[in-house]
Specification:
Elements lengths: L7 H9 L3 H10 L10 E2 L4 E3 L1 H7 L3 H9 L9 E2 L6 H4 L4 H8 L20 H16 L10
Antiparallel strand pairs: 1-2, 2-3
Helix pairs in contact: 1-2, 1-7, 2-4, 3-4, 4-6
Length: 147
């Protein structure tokens, strides 16, 4: 049996779907892409990673899980816009700001044992292809995701 490989798309999908127990389980298996700050982008050339997305979407649980697994608190946005740190983005989100300012690693207790993802949607393939291009060339650009 092949060992399970955690991909960027697995992590991004778990965060986007707010599947917290799965996100925790995936990061427990492999944290390689935890601080990848090229998972999300806008049409203006700004890029960010999981922690910034959890802050941006006001997800206290998402931030808790990411910090629990060692997300770097200073990995912010980058690209064609003015960079922002997760803490700067959390200025109007007291619970998240408190988590980011705390030196302590927050605890997260998984409530379920979700199954690991199988298969790969066209959107997930595009996310993984984008990451592979970054790994191979150092270049980052958004691949065309099917609608």
């Amino acid at each position: 049996m092949q060992p399970f490989t955690v991909t960027r798309a697995h992590l991004k999908t778990a965060l986007d779907e707010q599947n917290w127990d799965l996100l925790d389980k995936l990061l427990e298996i492999d944290k390689t892409h935890l601080n990848d700050n090229a998972l999300y982008t806008d049409t203006w050339g700004e890029w960010w990673g999981l922690l910034v997305e959890a802050v941006r979407t006001d997800s206290v649980t998402g931030v808790t899980i990411l910090l629990h697994h060692g997300a770097e608190r200073d990995v912010g946005t980058w690209g064609d816009c003015i960079p922002q740190t997760p803490l700067e983005l959390a200025q109007d989100k007291p619970a998240i700001e408190s988590l980011l300012r705390s030196a302590a690693k927050p605890d997260y207790l998984r409530r379920t044992d979700p199954p690991l993802p199988t298969g790969c949607t066209p959107q997930e393939q595009a996310i993984n292809r984008q990451g592979e291009i970054r790994d191979q060339t150092g270049l980052v650009f958004q691949t065309n995701e099917p609608e």
